[in-house]
Amino acid sequence: MTAPLAGIKVVEIANYVAVPAAATLLVDLGADVVKVEVPWGDFYRFATPRRNGYDTDFPLSSNYEMDNRGKRSLALDLALPQSVEALAKVIDGADILVTNTLPGRLAKYGLDSDSLLEDHPELIIARLGGFSSEGEQADEPGFDQTSFWALSGMMDQQRDPASPPAFFRPGVGDHCAALAMTTGILAALRTRDQTGRGQIVDVNLQQVGFYIGGNDSCQALATGKPPPRHDRLAPRNPLWNHYRTSDDRWILLVMIDSTIYWPTFAKAIGRSDLVEDARFKDPKERFKYTRELVEQLDETFAQRTFEEWKQTLEGEKIIWAPARTVLEAVNDPKSHANGCFSTIKHPEHGDFKTVAPPFRLSGHDMHGTLPAPSLNAHTREVLTESGLDPEKVELLVSVGEQ
Questions:
Q1: Backbone CA torsion sign across 338, 339, 341, 346
Q2: CB of 108 within 8 A of CB of 87?
Q3: pTM listed for this prediction
Q4: What is the tens place of the pLDDT at every residue in 157-177?
Q5: CATH architecture of 9-212+334-401
Q6: Among 157, 148, 122, 149, which Cα is nearest to 203's?
Q7: Helix axes 205-212, 214-223, angle to 10 degrees
Q8: In the chain, helix, strand, coil percent, each to 5?
Q9: Which class is domain 240-244+250-322?
């Protein structure tokens, strides 16, 4: 079958994670994506695992590879008028422009949305910022750690009462925002199919943070009250909690309706005696005596190792999960069987595993095997396709090679 976005041309003016990740999903769907970079390259290109604290000699930024696979690299220094002219010609042939460049900077190069839509009414412009692109914070820079995590309330909420706020791992909010941007772009393409006109797709990291944390956000809005934090030592439901094993690992229980699981769970952990205890006979009583029950379960789980508990609970009709390390998770054969990973075929560095696209289509192979482009690899090709004068093409190629 034809790829869903075959024939769609995308220009990406972005760096780091969220917008490049969204553009990569468009590549996976069959679009031709031209990534516009400064001649010295997107900083993310150089975020190798060793720079991120891994003890390894893996030579590439695996993060960059995952979020830029299959694109074409166009290196332009927009401080040069010739580069601005060249970029305008590239955009002339595009269906979609995606960017996380701040609005003021875009306007400096004549790339503000109003001007672009006036010249290209069929163009779809997808833009992302830390905040709304039309509010007073439009030109304030934002990262997912700030806008998505800290300023949405999740940083403060996702912790036990006595614990400090959790440090947020890079890229989590960005990848959530990438899915939101991709959804908006696909909707805008559908509308353009019907009307022939493009539009602006706006995504901001803070809004995505409120949405991802929506169970708490919506209740705080409706009630005017702060959401209660989960207290591991006194949870509302001790069967929806996590427990430490003898080797300082954790087992997560997620039996939200504890009534139907209580006898089975107690038997599985070798504590059928707890079912006979009047303090724990039903959810109401278990909540009333939650600290006492957690103490009992803490003592029980502390008697065996992580691996022993995994073997004990495997196959039991209860809802639980071992809190794996990332390395354990990515090496799990079941994760591989579930299609969570793909293999990038790199022409210089050989094959290596990466995270696969987050959805699959029965009529189109979302393979995710293409490498990210080398810097400046397609400048001549893209500018020639765009009809730029050959002398200017060679000038800009040479600038990108310096």
A1: positive
A2: no
A3: 0.94
A4: 999 888 999 888 999 999 999
A5: 3-Layer(aba) Sandwich (3.40)
A6: 148
A7: 90
A8: 45, 15, 45
A9: alpha beta
> Do the beta carbons of residue 83 and residue 76 sit within 8 Å?
yes
Q: In one letter, which amino acid is 355?
A: V
Residue-level pLDDT at 177: 98
Please choose, from the candidates 115, 98, 107, 72, the residue with its C-alpha nearest in 3D space to the C-alpha of residue 12. 98
* 3-state SS string for 208-277: HHHHHCHHHHHHHHHHCCCCCCCCCCCCCCCCEEEEECCCCCEEEEECCCHHHHHHHHHHHCCCCHHHHC
Return d(Cα 152, Cα 150) in angstroms, integer.
Answer: 6
CA angle 33, 36, 41 (to 5 degrees): 125
Contact 57/50 with Cβ under 8 angstroms?
A: yes
The Cα 88–Cα 85 span in angstroms is 5
Name beta bridge partners: 322: 251
Bridge partners (DSSP) of residue 203 are 128
Contact criterion met (CB below 8 Å) for 254 and 323: no
Say if residues 178 and 18 touch (Cβ distance below 8 Å): yes
Torsion (CA) 390, 392, 396, 397 in degrees, nearest 10: 20
The closest alpha carbon to 70, from 388, 399, 384, 377, belongs to 377
**How is residue 399 written in tokens?**
């600038």
Residue identified by tokens 């750690």 is: 145
| pLDDT tens-place string over residues 103-126 | 999 999 999 999 999 999 999 999
Per-residue pLDDT tens digits for 229-253: 999 999 999 999 999 999 999 999 9
Q: Where in the chain is the domain with CATH 3.40.50.10540?
A: 9-212+334-401
CATH 3.30.1540 maps onto the chain at: 240-244+250-322
- Lookup result for tokens 């601005």: 84
Phi and psi at residue 216, in whole multiples of 5°?
Answer: -80, -45
Any idea which residue has 């199919």 for tokens? 193
- Other beta carbons within 10 Å of 322: 18
H/E segment holding residue 96: strand 96-99
Residue matched to tokens 């019907």? 194
C-alpha–C-alpha distance, residues 38 and 40, integer Å: 5
How is residue 41 written in tokens?
Answer: 């390259």
| DSSP code, position 127 | E
